[in-house]
Amino acid sequence: MTLPAVGQNTKYPTRKVNGVEYYVYTVQTSEGLFAIGRKFDVAPDDIAKANPTIKNGLKTGEQVLIPVRHSAEKKAQTETKTSPKFIEHKVAKKQTLFAISHKYNVSQEEIIKYNPVVQNGFKEGLVLKIPVAVKDTKPAAAKETIRAVVKDVKPAVVKETKSLVTEKAKPAALPLRTHTVKLNETLFSICKRYNVEIKDVVKLNPGSEKTIEVGTELKIPAATTPKAEAAKVSTTPRLATEAKVVSSKQPVLKQAEKKTIRLAFLLPFMLDESKRDAKLDRFQNFYGGALIAIEQAKQKGISFEIFTYDTEASDEKINEILSNPELKTVDLIIGPAFTSQVPFVTDFAKENKINTLIPFSSKVADIDSNPYLFQFNPGADSETKYLTELLNGKYKNTHVVFANIQGVSSTDDGKTNADVLRKQLLKSKHTFSKLELTSAANANFASVLKKTGKNLIIFNTDKYSSAAPYINALKQSAGNADYSILKPYGWKLQTEKMPKSIFISPFMTNLNAESDYLFEQQFDQYYGRDASKETPRYDLLGYDLTNYFVNLIQRYGNKFGTKISAAGSINGIQSQPLFERSSTDSGFINQRVYLGEDKAQ
Known about the structure:
This protein is α/β, with parallel strands linked by helices. Helix content is 30%, strand content 18%. The protein contains 18 helices and 22 strands. The chain has helices spanning 33-40, 44-50, 71-79, 97-104, 108-114, 140-143, 145-149, 187-194, 198-204, 281-299, 315-322, 342-352, 380-391, 413-427, 464-477, 513-527, 538-556, 564-567, and strands at 14-17, 20-26, 63-67, 85-90, 127-132, 176-180, 211-213, 217-221, 244-246, 260-267, 303-310, 332-334, 356-358, 373-375, 399-405, 432-437, 454-459, 482-486, 501-505, 579-580, 588-590, 594-598. Helix 10 (281-299) links the parallel strand 10 (260-267) and strand 11 (303-310). The radius of gyration is 26 Å and the shape is globular. It starts with 13 loop residues before the first strand and ends with a strand.
């Protein structure tokens, strides 16, 4: 895939190392090599070569060197590109921008670029200029997957579907050497050893991107001399997105009790809406990541039947979907997305004894009495418990200030959580201060902040609009005090500048760079577009959760709920769920949360 051209990144400082000029870039939360490469129009492999230490993963706040591409280099590359050709498309009734972009295998952004009029409205009869790609090298079946299988109420069923990975064209003749695969070696580590790119090795060894076995001889294109430090065999376990070495003494995963795994996705694709909220794209990304996990499982010999429904946003639609008899036969329901639809699905799950994963909502009303439910979003209890442990451990010397905004509703989750946390700190004899806030103009934070040591301010609301005036007052009155605020995870989406802060979430803040790199390669290969850039990554959430539950079903069948405590977790890229329940009659809630820290903006 050709990376988009960008202008000179003059806002970043530069540094020369051995006569080569580099940008000095600070890694942001959840950024991987692909995302940084896109930002600077630099290949991820070039960034990795310039920063040998990142082989163990990128960390938020870490500084990396990015090779500077000067205007002459960019001009030379630009001149090699072919100007786009166009065809005309007349918008049909109820046709969406998303559907058109997938029909022609171009991004929605490209269509908008050449048709700015669509920003004023999208209607039937509109004639669009569609850029035609010079040559499409992506697997067509994969890029059409989401559009093809999503129907209105009657689902599309995928039975014994062919691999999303099509056969590669024969590579051009190259000087070759051979490498015999050793135990625990991966495609990534082998390519690093010989200083060659993964794509070049895959071209010479079709199928090596999925699984490589001990003793297999791989053809390696001639490059530079193998690096001595890379010759050591890594013993670090790799994640599911990378082709793993399988010991010849151990058989590849075979079929267990379940011959075919039946999954149902209930997600709001809104394919019939003429104007879609861009935020809904995250659910398509979630589904796209889930399909990659399913494809990887198919490569291990597991068969699937997939039932996919567009739930839209109404109670009527979800009830109509639940009337389909197929849903009573599935091993797992994944969804819905909207909290208002959750009770209908959880009632159905309990009545028909169908395991159901609720991926997004943290408020599942009958989680305490429905043993068929799995709630991924941990909720207030788990977060408060973890925060209490932090304040009595890592942050035991931090001065806590409860900032109580007057007039906050008793139903505000932030108020409830602050009250619970305050009671927990009283039990553990952890001292704290309180500040009553009646107006931002009179907010005297300086009166409670300690001049020496660290301070943590906890507001009694999870609504950013309520806290924002007081956050601004805090920034103006805090002086030189060292302070952070505790922010609900949802505040990360705010565009206003925030002070230094901490947050609790079910997502790891530092992704494994190698695994994320390989996942983004697959996403691009399957769908012909870049993976998501938002935080959290919904594509990775769909991948991690589907991978987790497919493994459980394969091992234990649809009774996996009785074995989940002994099954342990799996290595996810962004999340590693740990489901627990309070009794044999209750549902399961993910208890694994992580601490995140953001610098002041």
